[in-house]
Amino acid sequence: MDWGTELWDQFEVIERHTQWGLDLLDRYVKFVKERTEVEQAYAKQLRSLVKKYLPKRPSKDDPEFKFSQQQSFVQILQEVNDFAGQRELVAENLSIRVCLELAKYSQEMKQERKMHFQEGRRAQQQLESGFKQLENSKRKFERDCREAEKAAQTAERLDQDINATKADVEKAKQQAHIRSHMAEESKNEYAAQLQRFNRDQAHFYFSQMPQIFDKLQDMDERRATHLGAGYGLLSEAELQVVPIIAKCLEGMKVAAAAVDSKNDSQVLIELHKSGFARPGDVEFEDFSQPMNRAPSDSSLGTPSDGRPELRGPARSGRAKRWPFGKKNKPRPPPLSRLGGPLPSPLPNGPPSPRSGLDPLAILSEISKSVKPRLASFRSLRGSRGTVVTEDFSHLPPEQQRKRLQQQLEDRNRELQKEVDQREALKKMKDVYEKTPQMGDPASLEPRITETLNNIERLKLEVQKYEAWLAEAESRVLSNRGDSLSRHARPPDPPASAPPDSSSSSNSGSQDNKESSEEPPSEESQDAPIYTEFDEDFEEEPVSPIGHCVAIYHFEGSSEGTISMAEGEDLSLMEEDKGDGWTRVRRKQGGEGYVPTSYLRVTLN
């Protein structure tokens, strides 16, 4: 079925339908264009959002980038940025493949439609013109017939009139004959015109207009097919970016799974661990009046060395245990303001406890001679106006060591690069000397000299940073040893070398300075008096509960600890109770506590 056969008389309907189809095509093009603008605006807003939340500093200079949370967030922002790029690609494909092509095709369709309808209107005008000619010839024939009939009636009336002259009769007959001849010619002309019009009309309705309608039908079908393809391009543009968008979403999922809270906690420690020793306890100041009490068998007394003792049964020669604590655990020594050990007591300190004073009176006298010292967090933090030095001495010890280690690694890399470059230049010089046509060996001398100068400079810098690093490590290990002895906290496993608890602390000079200003008594600086009493306990033979191997070397310099060498087999006597220390026994004899992190433990 086609329009030429079925819609031969619906010229205006076909005209309206084809115009509606082109308008629909234009509406779709406009829709896709606005959709493209929406996609571009969406992508632009996404990129602006990503730019707003991306870190301003480079990742290598941003300490926050070391946290997995920040890395995952940056990765999500990058995936969103890639997602925005895919939206821009969708907008670009829609703009080129849909908007431009369909707009161009719409113009072509409009021109073709205009041509077909111009042809149809021209054929219609020709048919109308032939019909008008037919009507004119028909009216002329009708008029000539009436005049011929009228002339014939006039001639017949004059012929019967006896008063009419012969000349009048002849003239009337001659006029009737002329009119009759003219009517005959009009009849022939009308017949010919009618025949011609019928032929033109048949050609118009059966050939010419059906062909035009068929062309319009073909044009409209091609337009609809092209429009359907344009509909498909809308989804095809989306499907093309679906794999990339899926990768973006998968990347976001991976970034979310990459958040490691434990590692972030460790990173925070690495970034901000100062290496300072913890501040000491604040001493108790007793402002009550000293009271003299007569010593009795039930009261507390003190031995001659100034340490209070618990009166009771005779002491045995066995090892002692601290009350409410583990056997021979490292005892926290007194702390100074900066974390170092307190100086020795003055010779003219408090009176001997043998003088008959009660221990509370002794404590009161001691507290009066000691000023309270509290290490605040403010003293451990650098001020805002700190001057940055080349050896990073303005930083806390641990951070100074890390920065120096980083600088040393950078210098070593640069040194190795310069050494490799020097070797390459030497080889190139040898090649030039063997084959002069490849180049002049003398042209490499300036570069070789420059490389040698760089090597010497970097070696000096390496030596300088190594010296600074050794000094910083000694400070860190010293502070770590002090903290271990005071707070019974095990040291962290060493990164490359084991800790040397015998290294000197850089804060010793400041502690000595404080000792000259604040002369405390060493006995009064230990622990509170009620935890300083020693008790005798009956020891029972204990069998090992497992064995362990020392991963690192440990120098047990604090009270209650024991030394061990790397790789040494030890017997496990007591598990870690949560304080980071494990009691072990050496095969050569000796028993004490070592850091749990320094051991590889196997239980029986």
UniProtKB/TrEMBL annotation:
Residues 1-264 form the F-BAR domain. It comes from Rousettus aegyptiacus (Egyptian fruit bat). GO terms for biological process: endocytosis; signal transduction. Belongs to the FNBP1 family. Residues 342-353 have a biased composition (Pro residues). Residues 394-471 form the REM-1 domain. This is Thyroid hormone receptor interactor 10. One of its GO terms (molecular function) is lipid binding. It is found in: Cell membrane; Cytoplasm, Cell cortex; Cytoplasm, Cytoskeleton; Lysosome. Residues 281-359, 479-544 are annotated as: Disordered. InterPro entries: AH/BAR_dom_sf, F_BAR_dom, FCH_dom, HR1_CIP4_FNBP1L, HR1_rho-bd, HR1_TOCA, SH3-like_dom_sf, SH3_domain. One of its GO terms (cellular component) is plasma membrane. Its main location: membrane. Residues 543-604 form the SH3 domain. It comes from the Eukaryota. Keywords: Cell membrane, Coiled coil, Cytoplasm, Cytoskeleton, Endocytosis, Lipid-binding, Lysosome, Membrane, Receptor, SH3 domain. Residues 124-175, 398-475 form a coiled coil. The keyword Membrane applies. Pfam families: FCH (PF00611), HR1_TOCA (PF25610), SH3_1 (PF00018). Gene3D superfamilies: 6.10.140.470, Arfaptin homology (AH) domain/BAR domain, SH3 Domains. Residues 532-541 have a biased composition (Acidic residues). Residues 289-302 have a biased composition (Polar residues). Residues 317-330 have a biased composition (Basic residues).
